[in-house]
Amino acid sequence: MYRPKSTLEQWRILQAVVDFGGYAQAAEKLNKSQSSLNHAVAKLQNMLNVQLLEVVGRKAVLTEAGEVMLRRSRYLTQNVEDLESLAVNINQDWEPEISLVVDLAYPRSLLFPVLQDFLPESRGSRLQIIDHVLTGTEDAITRHTADLVIHMQVPKGFLGEPIAHIEFVLVCHAQHDLASMQSPIDPNELAQHLQIVIKDSAERPDEKSGWLKSENRWTVSQFDTAIDLLLQKMGFCWLPYHRVKTLIDDGRLVSLTVEGSTFKQMTAFLVCPTPDNKGPGTQLLEKLILHHREIDLPSCLD
Questions:
Q1: Phi first, then psi: what are they for 257, rounded to 5°?
Q2: Can you list the domains of the chain with their CATH numbers?
Q3: HTH lysR-type domain spans which residues (predicted)?
């Protein structure tokens, strides 16, 4: 097994000498004698057989090799500090890892402010953000595979907080045959055209929602792929309005009106699958998501 020749303390002393401008200043800040700091840095240089500092006038300055070694040493000492901090957090029941499952339809613009607020308070916890769609998102709740889940509905037996309304519109290319049809379009006529659908991310998908009458269907795993196909004048698709608003505004895509359905609105909910086991990190993330929600609550809940 490899045994390091140098110690963390020696690297910390070198950093202090550089950061505080010399041995005397570092000795005062570290509450150590100047001679002990000189000895530590000299021993470090001798063991490595690399000159890290050189005296210019009355000041010790880094050599080129010293600059490289010092920079790398900061990663080392910081990693040790992070590791020790993580141990403290674990002892305080702060989770080393938090998983957040987010339905693909949820606007990421609503999530970014949450993450910006969470980062400085996260105590080094690793955050997993996992994309799911349809019953794949529901599986994360019912199977308790995530700490928090943003889903378009609340499964039976669970509680959820509404955080946003998501509008879906039926769209196709402005030059697609459907775009020139008289509105509202007969659903039977719509069924004669290619439908682009988003693949359910569940292990065992359950197609129990959505208009899936077209026999001619192409399935994709991401909204971006569906939009790319539409821009190639292929098919029609139900998509979140926020994903296609710009394309509709500039005339490349058009929204379709179908008999019995102009658009559909869904509510995004924040669900904690195991509320009795929420750690402090999960609680903080939950609080921030609710703080940044974009939905009007009844006045009695304000």
A1: -110, 125
A2: 8-91 (1.10.10.10), 95-295 (3.40.190.290)
A3: 7-63
Q: How far apart are CA 235 and CA 222, in angstroms?
A: 15
Question: Which amino acid, 51?
Answer: Q
For 249-293, the pLDDT digits (tens) are 999 999 999 887 767 889 999 999 988 888 899 999 999 999 999
CA angle, 14 then 19 then 25, to 5°: 85
- C-alpha span between 66 and 71 (Å, rounded): 8
- pTM of the complete model: 0.68
Contact 98, 91 (CB under 8 A): no
Q: Which two tokens stand for residue 131?
A: 């994309």
CB 169 within 8 Å of CB 247 = no
CB 139 within 8 A of CB 200: no
CA separation for the pair 147, 128 (Å, rounded)? 10
Alpha helix segments (H runs only) across 57-207: 64-91, 108-118, 135-142, 187-190
With 70 as the cut, is the pLDDT of residue 90 above it?
A: no
Look up residue 14 and give its two tokens.
Answer: 């070198």
Three-class SS of residue 200? coil
**Cα gap 104→238, rounded to integer Å:** 13
Q: What share of the chain is helix, strand, coil (3-state, %, to 5)?
A: 45, 25, 35
Half-sphere exposure of 27 (CA within 13 A, CB side): 13
